[in-house]
Here is the input.
Amino acid sequence: MTPRWDILGLGAVAVDDLLYVDHYPIPDTKQPVLSRRREGGGLTATALVAAARLGARTAYATTLGEDELSRFSIEALEREGVDCSLIQRRPDARPFHSIIIVDEATGQRTILYTKEGVASFPPAEVTEAMVSNCRAVFVDNRAAAAGLRAAKLAHQHGIPVIGDIELEIEPEARQLMDQIDHLIVGVELARRVTGETEVEVMVRSLAGQKRACCVITAGERGCWYAERGGPVQHVPAFPVQPVDTNGCGDVFHGAYAACLVQGESVAAAIEVASAAAAIKATRPGGRSGIPDRAAVDRFLRMQRQENP
Here is the structure.
């Protein structure tokens, strides 16, 4: 039987209020905001949108409320074709709410967030029927308990688990990290977890003997990865002029997951993910700057022509 979804996601969803400034504020000063916009955000939710734009059928499981931010989150996901039928509603639940300051001079961003009222998907509600109806499970540490149950059920059905763990490491998040087959993390998290300073050593340490693939991303330095039993390889970042780096990591995750469920190799998935993240960096906004597959393919053709 054909699975209902390509990717089932359990993890963070946010509402991002982005403020664009000509330089990062200096303490005890006033500074004008050049422009502002509100978009959906959150690691897993944005990764699912990126995967959907690259052609994957995605579904999202979380807990939200009836407030303005919850309604905004669901409507934004549904517009992108993400199946929200698994989302549970609870009156006091909220998404993360972030204020993101984007420095237009560099494209770098600073995220200030509140998690008041944030509620994860109940682990008991993660069912075998739900998990067995997808080709891959995507998780992050913001819903570690539910993600851990989903990962264990996925492994019973031979379904791969893809995910990221951010800097806040709780005991359940460490357990979840051990269950992720395709682990994609930032270099700072990798340094903190492994205690190593060389990226190649970090990759080997996190890859272990059982993980299908470990990827460590490092922004403009590109990424390093190793498949099970294989050597550590470096993939340089595509040279672009960044406008807004918000969401680039989430886009990388989603594009990688989409390629994986569509049968592409890890090397091809990383190339597409790197291209999608690079394109996103040249566009303002978080989700609004996510490319579709046609844009990624055009970008890659242009890169190959310029760098044969």
